[in-house]
Amino acid sequence: MPEYGNIRTGRHCAFALHAHLVFVTKYRHKVFRDVHLRRMEEIMRAVCEDFETELVEFNGENNHVHLLVNFPPKVAISKLVNSLKGVSSRRLRQEFPDLVRHYWHAQRLWSGSYFAGSAGGAPLSIVRQYIEQQNRPS
């Protein structure tokens, strides 16, 4: 089995769980500038810390952001995503009133949907092969 880097441990487990998350703005409006993205990264890092999750990488463009998070098995991705989107939307709209004009009728910065994909570790074909090759007890 390929080696995993940065294995974290909990009380009863060892884990290396990473997810690639993508959030898009409501109506795909092109609203973010560099100043927004820099502040959003700070906000999202703080939310991740609250969830005992590490924001490994963050980047974005004018209408979407990408996050790579390392999370413990006790964290439900859907709850993490709801918190990341909710807190960042609220804080950014408070700190940057210019964003509000894009959302005058719906007080939401983000689209209701998101992308979450597992990342890191071995490709599924390698894991499948490794499991198939295990010796079965006689």
Automatic annotation (TrEMBL):
InterPro entries listed in its UniProt record: Transposase_17, Transposase_17_sf
Signal peptide (from-to): none
Domain of life: Bacteria
Domain Transposase IS200-like, chain residue ranges per copy: 14-134
Name the UniProt record assigns to this protein: IS200/IS605 family transposase
Organism: Streptomyces carpinensis
